[in-house]
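4.2 Preliminary Data

To establish feasibility before requesting continued support, the project team ran the inverse folding procedure on a target of 322 residues. The structure was first converted into the token representation described in Section 3, and no sequence information of any kind was made available to the design step. The complete token record follows.
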């Protein structure tokens, strides 16, 4: 029963013992490896010690146990149902293929207008407490407040709305590039934090002046802008050739500079950053429209070369003088 339970004397086992005697004699004569019937063949030591090629530069092999890649839209990032996601394409990409050139242009312009409208909506959300104070003033306030149309409360609310909008612009909320909604929420919360920090600093400065103490110094509210060629984050493109206020036409520069001259300190920096953010947002829209025009021209040229020029292409060429 040694064949079933295994032999306890494996070290002295003959590898050719169970073969036919004639076949065993043939293998002993013709095989380049001489078998020792008493001991199993030992592995040569020099082979084990020989250095492997490219030992200093190991070749990286893909991990077979790593989960297959799935798009971010999948709820199972561990690789489950990866075979179902192989042909997945985002809905926006599929819809964009069926849109006309005019629709693509309208999407870019509407995206910019939507961002501008979102600035106002988000600023109102951040100033909800000030809105409640105005409402309470009209419903529960005294006669003196009502006769003045709750001027103090309205003034506080208007300042909150204006400053929140400026902070949102300065932080890049006006950027027309697509990004996740959680990034917008982070910008919104950060703008609200900066506004209330500004109020706390103003209060501390007023108290110091009233008590005759030295005015406390605070770090700047806004961090330094990213250098040219460096994106602020993964959702904001790098600033390669930014347009400054001085690059605008004199007719546009004059009211902007006049407005900046009436401010100083943090207020001036915030206003300047908000203006530059609007300029950059407009530049982004112009660049995206320019890219779209180039793609349209390339598509028309390709159809013309293939002899598939449409009537619209001919009409467009006439108006363009080509």
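Position-by-position output of the design step:
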């Amino acid at each position: 029963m040694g064949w079933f339970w295994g032999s306890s004397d494996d070290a002295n086992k003959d590898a050719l013992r169970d073969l036919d005697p004639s076949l065993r004699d043939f293998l002993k004569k013709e095989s380049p490896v001489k078998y020792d019937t008493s001991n199993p063949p030992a592995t040569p030591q020099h082979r084990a010690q020989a250095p492997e090629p490219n030992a200093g530069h190991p070749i990286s092999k893909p991990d077979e146990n790593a989960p297959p890649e799935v798009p971010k839209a999948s709820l199972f990032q561990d690789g489950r149902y990866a075979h179902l996601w192989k042909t997945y394409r985002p809905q926006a990409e599929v819809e964009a293929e069926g849109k006309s050139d005019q629709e693509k242009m309208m999407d870019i312009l509407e995206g910019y207008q939507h961002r501008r409208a979102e600035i106002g909506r988000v600023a109102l959300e951040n100033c909800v407490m000030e809105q409640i104070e105005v409402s309470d003033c009209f419903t529960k306030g005294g006669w003196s407040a009502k006769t003045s149309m709750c001027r103090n409360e309205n003034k506080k609310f208007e300042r909150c709305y204006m400053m929140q909008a400026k902070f949102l612009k300065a932080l890049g909320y006006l950027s027309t590039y697509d990004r996740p909604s959680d990034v917008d929420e982070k910008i919104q919360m950060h703008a609200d934090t900066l506004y209330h920090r500004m109020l706390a600093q103003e209060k501390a400065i007023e108290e110091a002046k009233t008590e005759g103490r030295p005015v406390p110094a605070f770090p700047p509210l806004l961090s330094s802008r990213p250098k040219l060629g460096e994106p602020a984050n993964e959702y904001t493109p790098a600033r390669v050739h930014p347009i400054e206020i001085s690059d605008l036409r004199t007719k546009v520069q004059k009211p902007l500079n006049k407005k900046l001259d009436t401010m100083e300190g943090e207020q001036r920096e915030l206003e300047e950053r908000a203006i530059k953010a609007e300029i950059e947002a407009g530049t982004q829209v112009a660049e995206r429209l320019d890219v779209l025009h180039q793609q349209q021209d390339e598509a028309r040229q390709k159809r013309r070369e293939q002899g598939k020029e449409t009537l619209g292409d001919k009409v467009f060429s006439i108006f363009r003088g080509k």
